[in-house]
Amino acid sequence: MRFFPLALVVALAMSACLNIAPRDLQQSANSTNGNNSNNGNTGQSNSTTGNSGNTGTVAVCAPLPAPTGNTIVVEASQAADLPSIAAAAASGSTILLKDGTYPLSGSVILGTANVTLRSESGDRSKVILDGAYAVDELVGIQASGVTVADITIQRAYTHPIHVQPIGGNVTGVRIHNVHVIDPRQQAIKINPNGARTLFVDYGEIRCSKLELTAAGRPNVDHSSTPCYTGGVDAHWARGWSIHDNVIEGFWCPGGVGALAEAGVHFWNGGRDTQIFRNQFKNNGKGIMLGMGETPTSRTYADNPCAGLLQMGHYGGFVANNFLVTTDSNVYFDSGIALEQVCNFQVLHNTVASVSTPFSGIEYRFSRTSGVIANNLVTHNIRERDSATATLASNLEDAAMTLFAAPGADDFHLLPTASSAIDQGSAAYIGAVPADFDSEARDSQPDIGADEYRP
What we know:
The protein is 2% helix and 30% strand. It is mainly β. It has one domain: Pectate Lyase C-like (3 Solenoid), CATH 2.160.20.
């Protein structure tokens, strides 16, 4: 394997997961008009950055196809009209934003099915929706099949993107190549309706960057908790895929007493979430499924996990993620945390930190059960409060000397990383056949997100 800093690369799609039916791994990247009608399927993928995993299949981080059907072209000078333009867009329409900064004075609500909001150029850095901390949510998604792509969304008073059903269940939301900067609360919020009778399921967040910068950190909301911010925060949601993203900088000064929410958090009875090939950098928490011992949670007619109730999360597939902290100012609580989660798989992740976390990976509470295998952590894997899990071929207390260049965010394995190379269990190759960089794992896989090859 060639060594290079962690980048937005895509790999062979992974589908096997306990109690999760494999998805059609090709559909989402085969969209013909940039609108999304595939219930959030992940798309089989190859690298778009030129690394050696290219297999000729469709790349999920490649540019979206040109829009077809009705297109509505908007100039930056029309920023004040963008909320009304979005409200009037018919189903199947694409709103194309010309390059420029759009100072928003109201929320852009996408309440009609199969509407796409995207930049005309495809360059997310050139189209900026700016709330200046004066607008609660900048983009609201309230209908199925909505796509938001190729734009930057910054400085929301609450959530830059808020997905919530109004008139019916919402499925097939796609957020692609979006840069979210400096939210006051969570970058992407996913909620049921107020009565908790309508839900947002089978969505996808891919090829995006969510970050809290030093400039935005003083503006974080401290009214609910000491650091009420985070990356993706989803309640009562089923079947989402979070992949090929960078999530960075969600922390506040003050240590454990000012802990931010996780980079990705699905809870309140969420189900079948797939979180893979992401980079988490300098966050207080990385990935969290569930929260608390007796959560208020969604129930399902098919009674997953033998009918267990009050679950933080059902199922869950967490694989091939890099979760790293290289800034000693960050209090790093945990890389991956599982609380009242049944039938999960946590496979082939790398969790590395320059400071000592509470847990590299932790699993907690008596109804928690699943598999934690082939993970590389520089610190510990912690069982808490009578949780159970199958642990196999994890490497704990790994030295930073195993990695190519931690100071340059390169956590690929060195050829001298003998404690990780060829030390993994082969039992999980079917679930994770390739590594973060789309290089196939061999019959004796390496531990962690990277499969070293000379």
